[in-house]
Design goal:
alpha+beta; P-type Zn(2+) transporter; Four Helix Bundle (Hemerythrin (Met), subunit A); cell membrane; elongated; 757 residues; 57% helix; P-type zinc transporter activity; 7-stranded mixed sheet; Calcium-transporting ATPase, cytoplasmic transduction domain A; transmembrane helix
Length: 757
């Protein structure tokens, strides 16, 4: 409905009231007629459009009531109905909040201009002017405007996560094809365009989004579903009253009290209230249809990278050749990586500083973009980067090759570090499952999601591993944007399907899903634009809260509608029997409206949730404490692997490990058991909510003591007997495994108890 109609109806209705008060009845009637006619005209046109599509609309009864009131001379009644109808439409428009804007965010990501080589010089031209064969310059930090080949300056390092969902950078050598929409992380390079911007990969994704939005069947609103039987029933009662009494006013009175204001007003008020309550929790639901569809959702398809996982490369292990300690390898590598802007370099520097390592200033730097760095650190020639590049300089020993294979099998990457011409260490990096993901998965199932699936561009084996860990019902792997669209189509065959993602590659699938949900806190603008719901807080558990809010708002809307329609039904019987005039019926109807609207406003209240037991700062501090203990876990594994049969143990290393367990791990676990967890338990429901953690603390402390005793019993020059060796190996591996599990459980607990932030 045009925005100007509501203020027009309000002004004309009030003006008519003023005229009536001063005795100008004829002028008042004219003004009320003028207030009704534009609304009635718009309503008739809209109803005809719906009828052509074979749809019943609640608008039909309101139109008949307005028209009948005008024909029988009850202009005030007609104006009151028009006012209520226009108000309901305005609420619907407010709820939508201009949700279906043009895909400006999609188009804005592509640069508007680019440097093109013309007559031996670089000239700035519009991207639309680029044609196949043009030579372009792609600067550091720029988005590739078109598909092309790396012409010079390679190898290049590109962030392709927006297209493929893969969080780790990808290297491309000279002559290799690269796609538009990806981000240049390294130095500038020259690109030979393979096609124009309109024909490139990124433009194809834009078209996919548009096609998906066009092809998605419209969601049938709750009000229209009720109207399917309400309209014929109302017409039957009104016709019967007229037929039996011979008085058309009785039919009009029936139409007036049957005017579906509970549908026109109460349902939108409840829906808008639910949208408002969700917005206060950082959940932006773009319109009422999206909220109702969200409430019906039973199947959820989740993107992996950035949604189920962190989307960031994290250091998970350090393996060395035995000549250097893990801390030394990390310190030398991070010292060198300080000069790089690469995301993996930044992650390594952050970890080294968090572990308190003193970084040196490198000299004699040589940068191989897309491959790695080399330079002098504390008098040592250090090279760090891609395994193939470092291996070509320093060779690839068997242990490093095995470490690389482990990293790839686990879906991660490896950074090789060579010192003075020999591979000294391998840093394993991985995109890890978010701490709040397992809790969010449980909350989603508790909220009524019956089938949880994952869609990713990763390899099938990596995807299957994550799916098994999270207990998902299905896994779709190796998907392109088109593949994700097809996965959504398959899921929709089983019922109302929700899709969650955060990258440009997710945008077409989000547009096609019954409800697309974007992780908008750090996701791509394209996904937020194509989605129906945007989670502005970077927490997946907010999706379960969004489901709860939408279902409660819809339940309140249905309750208000049914109560209002029941009261209207009683009034219809009274009007058909002649006990209500049209004007009295309009007044009574307004009383019913007020009652159901007040009930609908209950949807403004937030869903009850436990108060946070931790501040965001406390959660970050506790998670940091676990990261500080990561070197201890690495040392446990290294010492266990070093205890091979027939080999003298590394007594110095074992003694150092025993000291670290006593000085770092044991006090940490004792502090959690004696102070932190009792304090948390006092702010949590239940008599002993952290009992299972207490049992784990006892097992960790027991293993630490057993390990300390066995290490203390080893003679400095003796080879331990086989029984002692096997026992110590079992204990070291057991402690490492328990600590990994325990830290993950505690991180999940802390994420669940944390407040905003």
């Amino acid at each position: 409905m045009p925005a100007f109609l509501l203020p027009l109806v309000v002004v004309l209705t009030m003006a008519g009231g003023v005229m009536a008060l001063v005795g100008q009845e004829e002028a008042a009637a004219r003004l009320w007629q003028l207030a009704t006619l534009p609304v009635l005209l718009w309503l008739v046109l809209e109803s005809l459009r719906k009828l052509r599509r074979g749809e019943w609309g609640v608008d039909l009864v309101a139109g008949l009531a307005m028209g009948g009131a005008l024909l029988l001379g009850h202009s005030l009644t007609a104006a009151v109905i028009a006012l209520m109808f226009a108000g309901g439409q305005a609420l619907e428009s407010f709820a939508a909040n201009r949700a279906r804007r043009e895909l400006t965010a999609l188009l804005a990501r592509t640069p508007a201009t680019v440097e093109r080589q013309e007559d031996g010089a670089w000239r700035t031209v519009a991207v639309a002017e680029v044609r196949a064969g043009d030579r372009l310059l792609v600067k550091t930090g720029a988005v590739l405007p078109v598909d092309g080949l790396v012409a010079a300056g390679g190898p290049v390092s590109l962030d392709e996560s927006s297209l493929t969902g893969e969080s780790l950078p990808v290297s491309h050598a000279d002559g290799e094809a690269v796609a538009s929409g990806t981000l240049n992380l390294g130095q500038g390079f020259e690109l030979t365009a393979l096609r124009s911007a309109a024909d490139s990969t990124y433009a194809a994704i834009v078209r996919l989004v548009q096609e998906a939005q066009t092809g998605k069947a419209p969601f049938t609103r709750m009000a229209d579903r009720y109207a399917f039987w309400l309209v014929p029933l109302t017409l039957a009662v009104a016709g019967l009253a007229w037929l039996l009494s011979g008085d058309p006013l009785r039919a009009l009175a029936v139409l007036v009290v049957a005017t579906p204001c509970p549908l026109i007003l109460a349902a939108p008020v409840a829906i808008v209230s639910g949208i408002s309550a969700a917005a206060r929790r950082g959940i932006l639901i773009k319109n009422g249809a999206a909220l109702e569809a969200l409430a019906d959702g039973k199947r959820l398809l989740l993107d992996k990278t950035g949604t189920l996982t962190t989307g960031l490369a994290r250091l998970v292990d350090i393996e060395t050749d035995g000549g250097w300690t893990a801390e030394d390898v990390l310190r030398l590598c991070a010292s060198l990586e300080q000069v790089s802007l690469h995301p993996v370099s930044a992650a390594l520097v952050q970890v080294a500083r968090a572990r308190g390592l003193a970084l040196s200033t490198p000299t004699g730097l040589a940068d191989a973009p897309g491959h790695g760095l080399s330079g002098l650190v504390d008098g040592h020639r250090v090279a760090a980067g891609q395994p193939g590049w470092v291996g070509s300089v320093a060779g690839t020993p068997d242990w490093a090759r095995a470490a690389l294979e482990r990293a790839l099998n686990e879906g991660g990457m490896a950074v090789f570090v060579a010192v003075d011409g020999r591979v000294a260490g391998v840093l394993r990096m991985q995109d890890e499952i978010r701490p709040d993901t397992p809790r969010a998965i449980r909350a989603l199932r508790a909220a009524g999601i019956e089938r949880l699936s994952m869609a990713t561009g990763d390899r099938q084996d990596i995807a299957d591993s994550i799916g098994a860990v999270l207990g998902l019902d299905a896994v779709y792997a190796g998907l392109t944007p088109e593949g994700k669209v097809e996965a959504v189509r398959r899921e929709r065959e089983g019922g109302v399907t929700l899709m969650t993602g955060d990258g440009i590659n997710d945008a077409p699938a989000l547009a096609l899903a019954d409800v697309g949900i974007a992780m908008g806190a750090r996701g791509a603008g394209a996904s937020s634009e194509a989605a129906d719901v945007v989670l502005m807080v970077d927490r997946l558990d907010r999706l379960a809260e969004a489901l709860a809010l939408s279902r409660r708002a819809r339940a309140i809307a249905r309750q208000s509608v049914l109560a209002g329609m029941a009261l209207s039904g009683v009034a219809m019987v009274a009007a058909a029997a002649g006990y209500l005039t049209p004007l009295a019926g309009a007044v009574l109807q307004e009383g019913i409206d007020v009652a159901v609207i007040l009930n609908a406003l209950r949807a403004l209240r937030p869903v009850a949730r436990p108060l946070p037991a931790l501040s965001a700062e406390e959660q970050a501090r506790l998670a940091a404490a676990h990261r500080d203990l990561q070197p201890v876990l690495e040392q446990l594994r290294r010492q266990a692997e070093a205890l091979t049969p027939g080999r003298a143990p590394d007594l110095a290393g074992l003694t150092a490990l025993s000291g670290r367990l006593a000085a770092e791990l044991v006090p940490h676990e004792q502090g959690d058991e004696r102070h932190l967890h009792p304090a948390l338990a006092r702010r949590m429901p239940g008599p002993d909510p952290l009992a299972l953690f207490s049992r784990t603390h006892r097992e960790i402390l027991h293993l630490c003591e057993r390990i300390r005793q066995d290490i203390a019993g080893l003679a400095a020059d003796a080879v331990p007997d086989e029984h002692t060796r096997q026992r110590l190996v079992r204990q070291l591996f057991a402690l490492e495994a328990i600590l990994h599990l325990h830290f993950d459980q505690e991180n999940e607990l802390y994420a669940g108890l944390a407040g905003e932030g």
